[in-house]
Amino acid sequence: MCPACSIWPDHDSTRGIHCMAEAPVGVDEQIRVLLQVMAGEGIRKAAEGFSGMLGEELSVSHSQVVLIPLVEIPMLLGGPEAESVGIYLQVHGELGGQMMLVLPYQKAMELTDLMIGAPVGTTTHLGSLERSALAEAGNITGTFFLNTVASLTGLGARPSPPAVMVDMVGAIIDIIIAVSGSVSDHVLMISSSFLRGGREVEASFWVIPDVATLEAFVKHEAEYDRG
Questions:
Q1: What pLDDT, on a 0 to 100 scale, did the predictor assign at position 108?
Q2: Which of 9, 108, 117, 222 is disulfide-compatible with 85, CB 3.0–4.6 A?
Q3: What Å distances lie between residue 15 and 12, 188, 191, CA to CA?
Q4: How far is it, in rounded angstroms, from Cα 192 to Cα 6?
């Protein structure tokens, strides 16, 4: 089973959705591996950041990375009308692109309970407090991911303030596409399970690098190979 299938119960592999575990056309194998290393290390660092904020250990039980076509995202998330929550960040600096922590609505409420230390099932709607907790989750994940990219490539970047979007998947994806411009046509999906005190919440972290960023990765790999 692909990572998305385990997180998005409405995903149906018979719909023609294929998770791109293999390198998509136009993405060099070395760059794909570099992205996977960045993703795995970034999620590990983010877990450490969560632990520091919560004052209690938060571990990552597993982390999987796949590259999928941007056009396949709506069906992968249960269809364009599925209600979801996206914590959206733009990337600025020497690197550019977009990042988003994405969850089905129910799992977003579960993550909120975990973040604020409330019993499971406490959160029944996403008010200002709940959205603030989710925004911090997205901010920590994005910041530590970018810090990892910087340490591996020497390229600095910073995230924008997080924006919490509660809407149908299709509407959320439309926002990404509208902002994208020359963005890559593939999304790096990082699937992880975060555990705290015996509780587990699954989430997907999406990274959509722009063309200039992918070119910077290619240059980094070429210089690394020569060195």
A1: 95
A2: 108
A3: 6, 21, 21
A4: 10
Write down the residue that tokens 């959320």 correspond to.
172
Q: Which fold has domain 3-32+43-60+67-197+212-226?
A: Chemotaxis protein chec (3.40.1550)
- Report how far Cα 138 is from the mean position of its chain's Cα atoms: 8
User: Average pLDDT for consecutive 10-residue bins of the chain (227 residues)?
Assistant: 40 33 51 76 79 74 74 80 94 90 93 90 96 93 88 87 94 80 70 81 85 73 62
Please tell me the predicted confidence (pLDDT) of residue 27.
Answer: 53
Measured between alpha carbons, how far is 221 from 212 in angstroms, rounded to an integer?
A: 14
Domain ranges of the chain: 3-32+43-60+67-197+212-226
pTM: 0.80
What pLDDT does 106 receive? 94
User: Which residues 6+ apart lie within 8 Å of 212 measured at CB?
Assistant: 96, 182
Q: Which two tokens stand for residue 156?
A: 């600095």
Q: Report which DSSP code applies to 11.
A: -
Q: Distance between CA atoms of 192 and 3, rounded to whole angstroms?
A: 8
Q: Which pLDDT score is estimated for 159?
A: 94
